[in-house]
Amino acid sequence: MLINLLCSDPLKKILTAVIEAHGIQISPNANITLLEKGFEFPSQGISVVFDHQSLGDLTDFLDTLSRKPDSNKTIIVGRHPDSEKYEIVPLDDIICFKAEGNFAYCITENSKLRVKNKLYELEVTLLEHGFIRISKSFMVNIQHVAEISPWFGSRLLLKLKNSKEIEVSRNYVKEFKEFLEI
Q1: Where are the beta strands (DSSP E) in 17-120?
Q2: Cβ neighbourhood burial of 22 (10 Å; 0-12, 13-18, 19+)
Q3: Are 158 and 167 in contact (CB under 8 A)?
Q4: What is d(CA 119, CA 29) in angstroms, rounded to the nearest whole number?
């Protein structure tokens, strides 16, 4: 990523080091400009205006810009609901994710662990790992589905390898079929 930096000389040395530490290159030709308040806006592109008192917010912004989605992640860390213990779970061991109240849980053969992410966040990051949203409350690992049957009201019924059954709600049937190319 390239960023243009327009600011006072004392700040330029500090911010150059911070920006480069985030793996972002500084270029006067960039479409995004970090602009200290009081400096003239560039003629094109996007400008993010900051003042010297908000450098903490600026470094948080740079953290966000330089963060890349971790699609290669093959584990989830979950917390046991009744204790402070955490467990590292390989994605292949997760049968499904379930939303209950304000929390999401990963369900494995032997445990139910609370995860920090919401289902909509997991849906985006885990799609390429074989996880598909099947209802407002469930996201299933397709590797753990043994059988798919038509069900009442244009829904589908999934029989999992552990013999449990979960419905694909009517609102998610089309996406589910597209995901499986059926």
Answers
A1: 25-26, 32-36, 46-50, 75-79, 86-90, 94-100, 103-108, 112-115
A2: middle
A3: yes
A4: 39
Distance CA 28, CA 16 (A): 13
Q: How far apart are CA 95 and CA 104, in angstroms?
A: 13
pTM of the model: 0.61
Low-confidence residues of the chain: pLDDT under 50: none
CB 142, CB 159: distance < 8 Å? no
Fold of domain 75-180: OB fold (Dihydrolipoamide Acetyltransferase, E2P) (2.40.50)
Q: Helices 55-66 and 9-21 sit at what angle, rounded to 10 degrees?
A: 30
Each residue's pLDDT tens digit, 57-82? 887 787 777 665 555 678 999 999 88
Reference 24, options 12, 16, 14; nearest CA is 16
The domains of the chain are located at 2-66, 75-180
